[in-house]
Design brief:
This protein is an alpha+beta fold. The protein has one domain: Beta Complex (Metal Binding Protein, Guanine Nucleotide Exchange Factor, Chain A), CATH 2.170.150. It is about 25% helix and about 25% strand. The chain contains 4 helices and 9 strands; from the N terminus they run ααααβββββββββ. It has a 6-stranded antiparallel sheet with strand order 3-4-8-7-6-5, with no helix packed on it. A 3-stranded antiparallel sheet has the order 2-1-9, with no helix packed on it. A hairpin with a 5-residue loop joins strand 6 and strand 7. The radius of gyration is 18 Å and the shape is globular.
């Protein structure tokens, strides 16, 4: 199989453009107005450095580091940024990925947007109340939804019922 010079240049150009496309993406909190808002300085004061990195800068915690992976009691998972109830423990499952995983969110508790931070489209999940980045949603979860919400534990708080 041979590749023409034109096709090679097109592929190289597309590859070079991906970091620019990714850099143009902005967090949900910059695109929308949310019920709960704080300045960057206030968020830094309210959140741990790890939570700030994930919730406000769209970071990702290391896999298998969250104590919430092993949380199996009945209760509710809340956004660590604003206390919004986002996931019921009855929808949590062990995906084996190293992050707390859920097959359904609470009604009207989260929002979704496409991000290209890794150079390809993913569905990012953010808190509907404060815009904090929670994680990503994938189409490889269990029934009845077939969805896997792969959520950073540092973005959550658990309240047993």
């Amino acid at each position: 199989m041979t590749i023409s010079r034109r096709n090679m240049l097109a592929w190289l150009g597309a590859g070079a453009a991906m970091p620019i496309v990714a850099a143009c993406g902005s967090p949900a909190s910059a695109q929308q107005t949310f019920r709960i808002r704080h300045s960057e300085a206030e968020w830094r004061r309210l959140l741990s450095p790890a939570a700030f990195r994930v919730l406000r800068e769209e970071g990702t915690e290391r896999a298998f580091t969250s104590a919430l992976n092993n949380e199996h009691r009945r209760g509710m998972f809340h956004c660590a940024g604003c206390d919004n109830a986002v996931y019921a423990s009855s929808t949590k499952f062990d995906s084996g990925t190293g992050w707390p995983s859920f097959w359904r969110e609470q009604a009207d508790s989260v929002g979704f947007e496409t991000d290209y931070l890794l150079g390809y489209p993913r569905t990012a999940v953010h808190c509907a109340d404060c815009g904090g980045h929670l994680g990503h949603r994938f189409n490889d979860g269990p029934q009845p939804t077939g969805k896997r919400h792969c959520i950073n534990g540092v973005a959550l708080m658990f309240r047993p019922s």
